[in-house]
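Second attempt. The first submission of Nuclease SbcCD subunit C had a stray character pasted in from the spreadsheet, which I only caught after the job came back as garbage. Lesson logged: always re-copy from the clean sequence file. Corrected sequence (959 aa) follows.
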Amino acid sequence: MKLHRLAVSGFGPYAAREEVDFDLLGADGLFLLHGDTGAGKTTLLDAVAFALFGKVPGARGDVKRLRCDYADRDTPTYVELELTVRGRRFRLKRSPEYERPKKRGDGATRQQAQVSLTWVGGWTGEGHSRIDDVAREVEGLLGMTAEQFFQVVLLPQGEFARFLRAETAEREKLLEKLFGTERFLDVEKWFRERRAERRRELARLGQAHRDLVQRVAEVALEDPPEGGGDQEWLSSLLKRLDEAEREADQAAAQASDRRAGAEAAWQEARARHERVRRVREARRNLDRYAEVEPSLRAWVAERDAARQAAVVVPAQERAVKLERELDAAVAHEQAAAAAVAALGYRGTDLRGDGERLREEAGGLTSLAADAERQRADQRRIAQLDRDVATTSQRLAALVTQLDEVPSKLAAARTAVEESAEAAARLPQVSGLAAAAAELPRVERAFRDADEARRDAVDAQQAAREALLRIRRERLDGMAVELAERLRPGDACPVCGSAEHPSPAQPVLNAVTAADEDRAAEDDQVALDRRQRAEQEAHRLAERLALLREQLGDRPPAELEREHRSVAAQAERWEARQHELAELEEKVQRALDQRGALERELAEAGAQRAQLVEAVEERGARLEEARGDFPDVVTRRAHLSDLADALTALATRRTAVVEHGERLADHRLEVARLAAAQGFADVADALAAARPAAAVAELEIRIREVEKTRTAAESTLAELPDTDPDTEVDVAGAEERFRAASAHATDAATALTNARTRAARAADLAERLRTAWLRLEPVEAEFAELDALTDVINGQGQNAKSMTLRTYVLAARLEEVAVAASARLERMSQGRYRFVHSVEAGPRGTRGGLGLDVMDDYSGQQRPAKTLSGGESFLASLALALGLADVVAAGAVLDTLFIDEGFGTLDAETLELVMTTLDELRAGGRVVGLVSHVEEMRQRIPTRLRVRKARGGSSLELTA
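This time the job returned cleanly.
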């Protein structure tokens, strides 16, 4: 991968478009990117990463805020990168998602993320504009994911120092991302899941086996054996059950024979007892018959007389009914005569006069309808007078209301316009009010941050002075350190002599390498604190300036009052619009109602005039036809009522005559029926009559007495030899049968239970033997799988306590350690090299990912955490370069960036690092260094300076 050109616009601290020509910048193979802290050096590396993968490395990628706060509203935010990968040259242009100000009015519009890939050379295919397509194309060409690219191309500040000092778990996470060992994690998971599945199956089969043993023991009424039982136990149990079944069968047969004999004796005793009881009962019934025989003859005579009188009773009831009907007809005739007299009739021809009066009433029918219509029209005229008065009042009130409408409409429209204007101004006023509220807090925060920055600067300067002082003192006492390493017969590293006549002697309170390391660490901590404090103070200063520029000279209280006023007006906008719409609708309804009322008045007046004319013309005819009555309807009703009363009286008189004739005829028929049944008169027949229920009761009483006598005589004839005084012991025979039956039932139940137990045990025994056959191979298979799973997951027989995934990562880490050691030995002049450790850590920590350093000066292996600041940088750089070599695995990385860390090196070590970097650029590779160290500017002639300004950073190429 070789970078050619980079352009950024509105990105990070770059407010305008800035370009970097990597072909020109990296012509010498090594260039420097420098500038003030916070000016945007690292942002250029972020831009390269964002162009390729759509995200930036480290914690900066979590913020997802890439647009420059100082960019003009019309300046777009994008990154454009032109590069060559595997002989294909292409251009990437990518824009993040961000909020840009609206072109009209206030507020912001969301700008969606966009990307395009255009081929420049080495390939003739079509470009891409979809984010997914570009991502697949870039990863396919580079052969690396975003995380791998960030580690092997962009060597970020502090990342590998943390990796060097990291614990096993943290180091493992990073290596997993770089080397993609997820498939080995899947293998471990597959084995664990497979073992869990087999364990569940084994547990299920084992539980089924134990359940079968338990059930067999329960069927045999025995306790289950310890250890799960075996074939010998099962055979012995089945044999005991067979013997118990045979014994129960013999006992059941004997008990059944005894029960049969007892049952026969009991049935014979019951039969004898029943014969004696029947003879005794028959004798008692004959004695009772002799006592009731006189009453029986009277019951028979009463029953026969009641049956003969039953023919006369219905006829007599019909005669009584006819008498009641005649009385009712007479009463109706008298009432009809009184009604005719009340109507003033004095004639004798009832039917003739009735027909004449009905014809006269019929002649008045048409005039009666006119009279009814006359009354309805008069009521309608009165109602129209009332309606006209009411409508006139409503119309006058409505006209008065409409006179006030124009002023109300004007006021409502004015209020809506005021609220609309306030709603349009509200976002701007709200922003100013929020800025006014934020200003005091930002001022306080800036004062605190500026004070913290000054403290941090003082502390860092003090730490740097202490470091320089300690280094001078150590250099002054370096002869003592060298003398301590001298051994008789070994060459002196300074003069080369094997003799050491007067080595330097130790002095009190001499400065050691450990003192220098601690001072370097203190200096680095103070420097980090200073940088953070300066960045925070710079951020707050920019925010404070922006707030003051937004507010101008307007007091915060005035802005707050204006915001409350405008917000109140804006909140009422919809309500006022609704009120205006309701008022306009109300006015329209009032206008429609006024037209309707005016039409009602006109229609009511015309209708009343027509009705008055018709009423006057009809009234003359009705006055002539009413006669002596109040009106025609009353006269017609009188004639109709009198005609109906005359007809009814004639009908009632005819009915009275007919009812009298029928009653006389029926009385003669009743007397004839009484004589025919043998009674002297009707009164005798009615005295002999009885209700049907009484006759039925007499019949039942007679039949029961005769039935009892006949049954008693039949029983005595059937059992002539039975002595009624004989006593039979039925209870004793039954008791003996019950005891024998219970014993036989118990014996049969015992036999059934024995057979059931034997059959059930045989069935369960067969199932148990099958379960034994299934369980044995599963146990063997699980034991093998369990041991293998433990080994793969770093347990059991795994002596190194390394999982499969850790083992693979350890192998890759060993490759990284070998590659990094070659570079570290050159940069440390043969003193240090990396040592990969597979030993388990303390407190059971997983092994395989240990990384220490071997110090050839002391011959001791020690943790990387013990390295000084400069040594840590050398080790981190060597590790990063070694990791890049391993991860790239043959991919040509023509461009490489190294971010910061050179400030911790002394002149000699820096020279070694520069020599190593010179080796990196061999073969056309370009190495970019990101640093603000002044000495780097002197060593590297070609550099890109980032100038920091309030309105956005800018780039300057120098050589």
